[in-house]
Amino acid sequence: MSTTLPAIRIASAVDAATLSVFARRVFHDTFAADNDPADMALYLDYAFSESKQRGELADPARVCLLVEHEGVLVAYASVFRGSGNEQVTAGHPVELERFYVDGAWHGRGVAAPLMAAVREVALEWGGDALWLGVWERNPKAIRFYEKQGFERVGAQTFTLGADVQRDAVMRAPLGAA
Ligand SMILES: CC(C)(COP(=O)(O)OP(=O)(O)OC[C@H]1O[C@@H](n2cnc3c(N)ncnc32)[C@H](O)[C@@H]1OP(=O)(O)O)[C@@H](O)C(=O)NCCC(=O)NCCS
């Protein structure tokens, strides 16, 4: 059995194709059972095309972190400093846009180091709070975020295909904030 630990690195544009395939799969794995297949297909095409990933990876307001095990992608997170939210108290808010661990790696100590790396990036940007939107029907993720110091501060809509859903908005302080 391998003892190599997963390693975290910052993604670049050359990772667009791999990330597109992985991000589609883990989003589908997470939400397909609770959503209409047509809505799911529309959203996957909209959000995770290779060209969209390439554009986001080239955006200086974003950082995408990849977790790899023996060269295979097992988790990713993306952070964005271009968005605020009126429900989030912060001078310099940083949005945690995506946070996904492959199902085979859940409960194996990948999520916490990835969140620590997210905090490091946000702090380097001068962020004083992290915020995110999470589907109200995703209790596993909400529990994880609560364990990581996030608190619910509001709600917002999220549109999956043609389905308008409700996300909880959560906030965690950064540094001494
Ligand atoms: C939300 C998510 C990132 C959490 O990751 P996770 O690995 O499942 O969560 P945890 O790190 O809390 O681990 C789960 C359990 O394994 C345990 N665990 C963590 N690291 C461990 C390790 N190295 N060894 C043994 N057990 C470990 C934890 O203690 C936890 O148990 P608890 O719930 O009783 O505290 C993950 O479930 C996920 O990617 N889900 C799908 C995508 C998703 O919903 N993303 C959010 C969209 S907004």
TrEMBL record:
Pfam families documented for this protein: Acetyltransf_1
Alphabetical list of CDD domains matching this protein: NAT_SF (cd04301)
N-acetyltransferase domain: residues covered: 17-175
Transferase recorded as keyword: yes
Alphabetically ordered keywords of this record: Acyltransferase, Transferase
Record Gene3D superfamilies: 3.40.630.30
InterPro entries named among the record's database cross-references: Acyl_CoA_acyltransferase, Bact_Acetyltransf, GNAT_dom
GO molecular function: acyltransferase activity, transferring groups other than amino-acyl groups
Protein name per Swiss-Prot or TrEMBL: N-acetyltransferase domain-containing protein
Organism from which the protein derives: Gemmatimonas phototrophica
